[in-house]
Amino acid sequence: MRDDKKQDKHEAITTAAYALLADKGYAGASMLSIAKAAKASNETLYRWYGDKRGLFEAMARDNAQGIRHRLEQALSDDQDAMQALEQIAPLLLSMLLDDRAISLNRAAAADPSGELGAAISAGGRDEIVPLIRSLISRLAIKDTDGLNPTDLFVTLLVGDLQIKRAIGALPQLSQEQVTQRAREALISFRKLVGLA
Amino acid sequence: MRDDKKQDKHEAITTAAYALLADKGYAGASMLSIAKAAKASNETLYRWYGDKRGLFEAMARDNAQGIRHRLEQALSDDQDAMQALEQIAPLLLSMLLDDRAISLNRAAAADPSGELGAAISAGGRDEIVPLIRSLISRLAIKDTDGLNPTDLFVTLLVGDLQIKRAIGALPQLSQEQVTQRAREALISFRKLVGLA
DNA sequence: CCATATCCGTAACTATGTGTACGGATAAAC
DNA sequence: GTTTATCCGTACACATAGTTACGGATATGG
Q: Do the record's keywords include Calcium (chains A, B) (predicted)?
């Protein structure tokens, strides 16, 4: 299969996997049902991904790379650091809480091995946090009372929304709610780091 | 069976369920394996709890009630509100992140129906948040820039620790780490609500 | 002591998932 | 056109889970 056709099939497979994950949970998102929905075969899934967890780990890496890529695209060279944070805060929040990211978190919570969770965590650590930290390090922060400003920023932005979404206690946020939350997080963040 | 013996058996069942949940995930924590580990029978579990999800919902309610009860016990009448918050912040954080609470979150994330998540969320809303809100309403808060101080407090205290714990990306925090995090949350909280 | 209710251990029924294997079909490279 | 590699659809082996049913054992109340 040519690379572009293979890429299309990979896309169909992961799209099917996300839909089944959202609808039936990790246990109910069987490899056979994913293959059928993607119009691929069982044998192909095992050949490409190794096993069920291998498929979901690939999806987690794709998702983290996609988030970093979109954050990078949203930045431009002529913004100052605070403008850049204002730019990406709602975007980051939106992506961390969208159905795909949440479905992956649910799969990781259901996976007893912990390996899928490790893949998601590595995605955050390797792809997203460095970008945030880099922006925050350009701010003229005066005082943080010994707190880590990157962690503080993420805490204020995301808080417990991911776990609420993952357990189904919170529906998808509207774009307005996302924007509002991001704005409030930045107000609090500025106050706490002495930039208000 | 007498009530106290039944209570003992209920305790054995839920203890077994937590252990299997932590070890094998929600799917692997089968009703048969829980019954065996609790030295009860399959038929008894179905008679008492209805079905698998009924068992875990009962555990979620028990857990929320237990958290509220321990918080109430930690408070005394002669503390002012800030002292009371300082008292319960590390305790609340510790309980929200302990293995039992996290196991329930993982079960809820794995449950495609959303009902287990609804039970956990109701526990938070009905048992824990009112207590926090009541304490915070006694504070002489000057200004919150339109933010909800109860939500802010919980955001600063818990942040994304629950989802990290649920996906296995973070081990159990030590008591020292819990205390430190609670202290930092309260410093930030005071600053943000004009009590610093 | 007897009657009743409940628990226990196991079997049975139904269902589904993971992962491998296989022969035919198709795509791709030479 | 031929050879090789890969995909597809299906079958298969193995395993396990949710839930109900049943007869004997035990606990409880009168």
A: no
| Same domain assignment for residues A56 and A144 | yes
Cα B8 from Cα B136, distance rounded (Å)? 37
Q: At what angle do helices B175-192 and A175-192 cross, to 10 degrees?
A: 90
Residues A134 and A184 in one domain: yes
At A156-184, the pLDDT tens digits run: 999 999 999 999 999 999 999 999 999 99
C-beta atoms surrounding A10 within 10 Å: 17
Q: What is the CATH number of the domain that holds A84?
A: 1.10.357.10
**Among the listed residues B56, B40, B37, B71, the one whose alpha carbon sits nearest the alpha carbon of residue B157:** B71
Domain around A82: 52-192
Q: How many domains in chain A?
A: 2
pLDDT for res B25: 94
Model pLDDT, residue A194: 87
* Mean pLDDT score across all residues of chain A: 94
Pair B96, B159: CB distance under 8 Å: no
Q: What percent of chain B is modeled with pLDDT above 90?
A: 88
Whether residue B42 is predicted with pLDDT greater than 80 in this model: the reply is: yes
- Give the nearest chain A residue to B103 (CA atoms): A109
Residue nearest to nucleotide D21 (CA to C1'): B43
Residue of least CA–C1' distance to C20: A43
Q: Are residues B121 and B162 in the same domain?
A: yes
Q: What is the pLDDT of residue A142?
A: 78
Q: Are residues B123 and B27 in the same domain?
A: no
Residues of A in contact with B117 (CB under 8 A): 167-169
CA distance A22 to B6: 38
CB-closest option in A23, A152, A163 to B162: A163
Q: Which residues contact B87 (CB under 8 A, 6 or more apart)?
A: B74, B75, B79
Statement to judge: residues A131 and A185 lie in one domain: yes
CA distance to partner chain B, nearest, from residue A117 (Å): 5
Q: Do B184 and A155 touch (CB under 8 A)?
A: no
Q: In this predicted complex, what is the ipTM?
A: 0.92
Task: Say whether both B67 and B18 belong to one domain.
Answer: no
Nucleotide nearest to B1 (CA to C1'): D27
pLDDT digits (tens, 9 = 90+) for B145-160: 778 999 999 999 999 9
